[in-house]
């Protein structure tokens, strides 16, 4: 028995449910936990969670040497079954609509479309996955597939047929459903399946076995139901039409397959007419740039049907529509002359196209637009030289990347590979080809402003910095460099995995420092490392990896203020403490002093050209002096001193200023700006003996330099004002920052215009984004070559000449500022600037509708700064919540009302609120739910910030917990009441076995197993303070739970007097309740399987049994129930708090970091010493008498007062002991561990953690937990009487476990 018994009896959450773990780490974890979760289950979970293609491939590589080759296919079939069931649950297939199939089909046939098309997003997702596994040759990475493919069409159709017909051993799992044919239709377009002389043509030429199976799947009633859908329900007719050239003797087809005689004539005519209509309406007018734009849904369905019927036709038409060749006419360019003006395609059409059509379209677009070294290739006559890809083409590629991530994965890889290659060009070539510059600018905009959210949870995300490491230092084009900096900020902001830490120390980085030229980016990287370590830990990263990372971020030591350090995790904080103790310089690196600036101005004549009237002196000496890079850091400070002297910016010198600044490497501008800001702050600082300017003057000059003359970047200025270096004038910097953001008329006017032009916060829905962006830029142009003044003055030509012009598809300062605003919010929290923070959030909250990852930002902020008093202010919590678009995130209505001031009370945040949080998370984690959205107004899942339903559910749940206005103690009380079923609901049993609600009779509300597991995941994700409270409950529950004592053998240390008094009390209670109990038992409603629980009536010899320490039948039944499966107990009305507590603890332990092992060891040590865990410092647990669970109240069906009375003191006093000087609680003997069942309960608690204890050294050895357990067992058994034979069986389980 032993460990095998424990594993068999206890319900352990499977690794596949670990939504916050990295996908391909689960296989090893699951192998260690139990064998119940099969590889099929693991792959099914990967498919459900929208795992990126690379992670699925990695899992295939991790399969054992002799696996079942059908593993992936079986997982896909299981997901198909779940998807079809989900669609059937939400459809009215059994409600018939009136259909006349005897009439003539119109040339432009009407399309049957259901009212609700929400199911199409999960159907499109499954189609994409099936297509990818069927079409991709996996032989280079795995030799387990004889054919090289993980899924074969002929195997899949047999599996689908088995779902509706059943097998000899299993009944049918599905009704016939045309969805199965629709899914197979996506695969017929694959060449190896439906191509000439391939699988299907061979089948038609022989016995038509596969064709017969396909027809057998058809449900003729579905198309005529109220939720019929031609695109799905005519999939069989489309498949036959697509393959008609290979079908032999088509005239006799209806006789070979009689079912076709009924379904073929009318609906096949619809397919033929759709083809004719498409050719006339769309193919012949493909040069019309409005033909495919803003189509109604019935037209979209016709185009999608055409993509199913005829191969490549739709993809080819859409390509020509997007990139017109004009058939011999001159190609029309946009007004700027940079790209070919094509049409616009709405996302609703792209989403429902056949997967093969999507695959071919994005392949054509990439090959012709982005795959060449000489720019876009336009096949036009006469030839045309086009410099950029049209924004509408980039938009279509973005939508296809989002809605078909698996099937177009190879295109994404090709794009990123080319990005890496172009990133290295500045290192190998002195001159960057203009085509490469344009390509980089186009693709980096696509990545930064559109694809970054979808890349967040991919295996490539931790390595994003590697795609831009050389461009960050060596790019010479200033607009491109500005975008590269923005991309680096974005890449750092989306990191969530500890794999990012290993990526930073990768030996292939080829540079001594990641951000040698930019202190601001290095500081952003430190904050990212701190966030990852604090929220995710270091996992299996090598020891000392954090120290190594922090040493290679910047060439100078980075110093932080105490306010910022206090929020760092211990490894990061310890590094900077050690750095400080080692005597590292605390000064500002590279700071320019007043003396140096005075010397340059007064003792040299270099700057005279800037001080005298224009034209008096040439700028030759000035340019020559600053041609030396060693002189660059001083120029902006000298410029500032001249501004101070003149008390304004003299426009006569701006031409010379520009000429000098164009000699600065773009990568150094961040540092030079930092030096200027440090110098200006020192001139303003009261500690300066000779302050010369006012804050108003500094703010006005900075605003002019940024907005009017655009000589400095607003991003650089703001980052320089909030570095967090203690030697800098931090208070002054933040005051100026507030003036330049909250009180800036320049930013506010830009935001007002941005919102007025009506750009949708859902970019996939915005078909006019480029036109609206150009409208904004026309009013607020942005310049990167310091030419703003020359352009405004009409200077022509501008000298020195400008860089090559670049096309802004998405790029603008408001969107670039969002990354900086994230850091500003963090600074305000760190410095406790609550009022300012609230004002800032309210001012700029509207911009966060366009943030790439607002849900992740709010969740990370609430977690990282949880201990901050600032976040406890309800105004801050509400303002943070309002950064989210409530139309795109499924937050609790209670919380949204609270955030919008519709409800200001805490009363709605009760156990029902917590229960709903756990229920929603459980649903989002359940593969059988398929991620089906509950609200039709929510975006399609593939366009959301997080497409993985489990991770999105977890992020939402964390926000709903941390942003609600209740204390952690109150939340934990409510959570434990929910998972332990310690809530009430009125239920009365009817004579027929049914139930009806009655407020007078209460029953426990026992949650589903998936809700308990979801609650465990949620608790493991919350800050450590919640876990501190939980382990106080673990300690208290194990010691004092009376249900555990009821199933136990009586302690030998109890006295005869106490036992006699207890028996008398039990007899008295039993006599009072005998009549009602007997009546209930007579009616048969209190049996072991009833709703009344498992109470037993004791006979006349009960007292003698107690006095002789014999365990009763009720105790034996109770003991078995404590360690049974939670689901079994729940289904048989035998749920009890210890069993619920075990299940919940295992869920918490499975989803937790290794830190939980230290907590468990602390409990073991305390139990061995007879002490208990003290409440956390500052906790209100003392108000709950050191625990918040009201143990075994009247709603526990297994509690028997007559048994538990034996274990109480005669006076009924449940004394909890006293708090000692060292803060521990020493309980009286009756409150310490003393029974065999408590020992077995502890073994059950730690059973799933044994494999983790073996790999962690605690107390200098990995076996310390076993030593503590053995000593604890010896202590407890020493108190038990050796003759207590009923207890020996329980002790045997304990000893076998050890």
UniProtKB/TrEMBL annotation:
Report which superkingdom the organism of origin falls in.
Eukaryota
- InterPro entries to which the protein is assigned, alphabetical: Mediator_Med23
Compartment annotation: Nucleus
**Which GO cellular component terms, listed alphabetically, does the Swiss-Prot or TrEMBL entry include?**
mediator complex; transcription regulator complex
Region annotated Disordered, chain positions = 1068-1095, 1209-1230
Keywords in alphabetical order, please. Answer: Nucleus, Transcription, Transcription regulation
Name the residue ranges with Polar residues bias.
1074-1089
Q: What are the recorded Gene Ontology BP terms?
A: positive regulation of gene expression; regulation of transcription by RNA polymerase II
Q: Which family does it belong to?
A: Belongs to the Mediator complex subunit 23 family.
Q: What is this protein called?
A: Mediator of RNA polymerase II transcription subunit 23
What organism is recorded for this protein?
Podila minutissima
Q: Which gene encodes it?
A: MED23
